[in-house]
Amino acid sequence: MDKQAKERPYPEYLYRAHVHGHPFPRLLDVFMREYADSFGSDFHIWAEYDAQSQIFVPILDPMESWTVDDVFSELNLHPGKTSVNLQPNCDGEEPFLSSLVSLSSDFRWTAQRICRVGRMTSKDQIPGLAICKTSMIDPSVVRIWRVAEMLLFRDTILLNSSVHISPRLRRWATNAQEFVCWLFVPQEALIAFTPFPNLIEASNGGERAFLTKQFVGSNYLGDFMRCPYVHLSLREYADRASEFVRNIITDVYSFEEAKQRVMYMKVVLSNPYAWGYEVSGVAEDVEEAIMLSVEKALETTFMIK
Predict the structure, then answer these.
(1) pTM score of the predicted model
(2) CA proximity to 108, closest of 233, 204, 225, 203
(3) Could you tell me what percentage of the chain is helix, strand and coil, using 3-state DSSP and rounding each to the nearest 5?
(4) Hey, where are the domains in the chain?
(5) CATH number of the 2-193 domain
(6) What is the pLDDT of residues 197-224, one digit of tens each?
(7) Which of 94, 123, 144, 188 is buried most deeply by CB count within 10 Å?
(8) What are the pLDDT digits (tens) for 27-81?
(9) How far is C-alpha 99 from the geometric centre of its chain's CA atoms?
(10) What is the DSSP string of 54-90?
(11) Cα–Cα distance, 263 to 294 (Å, whole number)
């Protein structure tokens, strides 16, 4: 699997719909007097909570203590962990705590995912969209895999594996363009974390936010794509896109890093139909307007800072 990653390089950025405070309460660092939020798997967050410290939680390489079948068994259970834990348990049976952390290379899929998750969180939880730089995830410390390549490895190399791969996992790997990290995503890989309210709100009122009510309220992208388009002028669409980008890059630590993000967002936002909009103007006009709007977001964000 690691060999395949070298032959087909991973994307520069990966995204995660994350909730600080789930599935265990946020850990307070008594020395720093602030929350020590991490981007860990359910199992890793439980270990931190149980130890009441991030320092005393060991980092174990799965290839040293698990068989390959063990890893695939964990992967097979991972996408259905919520439904698994909602099923009635036998007395004394512990809930399933996955050792895997989901990431996606699809920004729109992740944005829709955090909209769904964000609607269900409590006041003590902080949902948001995390942007991670893949090159900062050192595979010698934290294992990261493209799920589609894991399944290809399973189907072509591990022909005698006892682990059955569910159709749900295969659909999930394709639809979400899914990657997984073992145990946690290292903090140094985090480029930005945009809280859910900042994604769906606009300074000039929710009616003019970039993410439409249909996008925020849909459970899946398939449901959203069946909704009628919102009709806007090109200028209105560009203005909404500019504020959306500004909210996303406001916590990026450097101008150069933010500039790279902005260039990527230009491509993502240049298709209004993907976001539920029908915009007047030809494609070239839309691309030019989005380019100007994201550059404006970059300039105003770092002027504000």
Answers:
(1) 0.90
(2) 225
(3) 50, 15, 35
(4) 2-193, 202-304
(5) 3.90.210
(6) 999 987 555 568 999 999 999 999 999 9
(7) 144
(8) 887 666 788 898 999 999 999 999 888 877 878 888 888 999 999 999 999 987 7
(9) 16
(10) STT-----HHHHS-HHHHHHHHHHGGGHHHHHHSPPP
(11) 8
